[in-house]
Amino acid sequence: MSELTPVQQYYKGKTVFITGASGFMGKVLLEKLLYSCYELKEIIMICRSKRGKSPESRLEDMWKLPIFQRIKDERPHVLKKVTMFAGDITNEMLGLSEENLKYVAENTNIVFHMAATLKLEGNLTDAVNMNLAGTRRAMDVARKMKNLEAFVHLSTAFCNCDQEIMYEKVYEFPHKPEDLMRMAEWMDVQTLDAVTPKLLSPHPNTYTYTKRLAEIYVRDQYNTMPVIIARPSIVSPAAYEPLPGWVDNLNGPTGLMIGCGKGVIRSVLVDKKNKSEVIPVDYAINGLIVIPYEFNKGKKPAEIPVYNITNADHRKMPIGTIIEMSKRVNEAYPLNIGLWYPDPCLTTNKMYQKFNEILFHWLPAYFIDFLLMIFGQKRFMIRVQQKIATGLEVLQFFTLSPWCFKSANYASLYNSLTRDDKAIFNMNMDPVHTEEEYMISCAKGARLFILKEKPEHQARARMHLKIMYFVDRICKIVIIYYFLKYLMRWTGISELIF
């Protein structure tokens, strides 16, 4: 395909401004734009200093990631099209210097606002500052852009969790975004924490709550700005691009996969009948890239466009089916040196879950840390279990609730593309690869990109898994034996038998 496709032609000569480009989705967006929309003029991204590293050094570290290898091999010149400015969405005008702000305002055509805090357990002050006020600050900068064609706000499909069916529209809420931002400014953290439970209802956490109000704020600017809302569901590892199985964090299904695969998570509160709501990151990013093109094709819609970037209904599988599939995959591609045999208990009973957590999470954690203390080693298991307990608690709302998203707008993005654009910006919900093949790709990606486990260690991991299987079964037999023995003695049955 020597000629540019319609989507590529749209991006030709354009300047794209990205917040959150250093995040999981941000990296994939940056790579895809550079690789597939290589005729664009420039990508401007903001980045703050973090852990003693300057924005420039963080960008250099980013280029070393394997997802940018195909660009280095095939189109290394496009890396020069990236401009890094020091910035932070928690600062007014995103912390841009006067000179940089002027440059952004004069050159930007398309904005992807992706920066946010994803901490479900985070306090409301931080969530408002990042997710709501951060969006307002990004839009303040966008208002200065002289040639703005599209402002794509990245939200979440779960922000309207009080709705049985979530359509592609902005839902009203009693609270006003401006009121909450003012409240977070003058109220101290402790006081705001005290009233947070009343404010959140019916939302389970500060993330979905602030994301919902951010949508309302964005919607209210539609009359004067070209704003669009994109709502991905749970974003999972890449299906195809930039690398199959690519992932760089433990959020969502990847964290559960690794935790269960290592035998650290032994029990999960989940309804196996519910359908999974995940979307591969490359499918989500391809949708994001097509949105500005689609928005500028014709007449401006009467209402703000909203896209639920979710899997097609016929591709959604029951969580129980996925768990069984993941067990088969884990047996074929086990993780190195797990704590216990990976066979987690799935339950909807909260009391039973608490019992399992005490027996299989906390007691082993205290025992391991006790041994580490005796041998003079650094203790870590209790700290790990505290993080796991927090993570499992905030996930309960999502794993126990059925979800229903309508994604006609997202589906239409792919259906309206030319054949060449469909090949480049793939969102095909009927791929030749099966779900199990994708699961294998995710397992390999978690091993390689997160745990840094080498493929040549796979045979050793399988041997370790077999050993842990027999240890697990022997321990269960011993426990059952002594439990029955005690029960028979306590009830007097043993005297009748013997």
Describe the protein's architecture and organization:
The chain is α/β, with parallel strands linked by helices and 498 residues long. The chain has a domain of 311 residues: Rossmann fold, CATH 3.40.50.720. It is 51% helix and 9% strand. The protein is built from 19 helices and 11 strands. Helix 6 crosses helix 7, helix 6 runs parallel beside helix 9 and helix 12 crosses helix 17. The longest helix has 34 residues.
The ordered string of helix (H) and strand (E) elements is HEHEHHEHEHEHHHEEHEEHEHEHHHHHHH
Mind summarizing the main beta sheet? 7 strands, parallel
Secondary structure category:
alpha/beta
Query: In the CATH hierarchy, what is the architecture of one domain at level 2?
Result: 3-Layer(aba) Sandwich
**What's the N-to-C terminus distance?**
84 Å
Number of strands: 11
Coarse morphology: globular
On the 0 to 100 scale, the average pLDDT is 91
Name the poorly predicted regions. none
What proportion of the residues is helical, as a percent range?
Answer: 40-55%
The CATH topology of one domain comes to Rossmann fold
CATH top level of one domain is: Alpha Beta
* CATH homologous superfamily label of one domain: NAD(P)-binding Rossmann-like Domain
Topology, element by element:
Layout: H1 6-11, E1 15-19, H2 24-36, E2 42-47, H3 55-63, H4 69-74, E3 82-86, H5 98-107, E4 110-113, H6 124-143, E5 150-154, H7 177-186, H8 189-200, H9 206-219, E6 227-232, E7 234-236, H10 253-261, E8 267-269, E9 278-280, H11 281-295, E10 306-309, H12 319-332, E11 345-347, H13 350-374, H14 381-400, H15 408-415, H16 419-424, H17 435-450, H18 458-491, H19 493-497
Parallel strand pairs: 1-2, 1-4, 2-3, 4-5, 5-6, 6-10, 7-9, 8-11
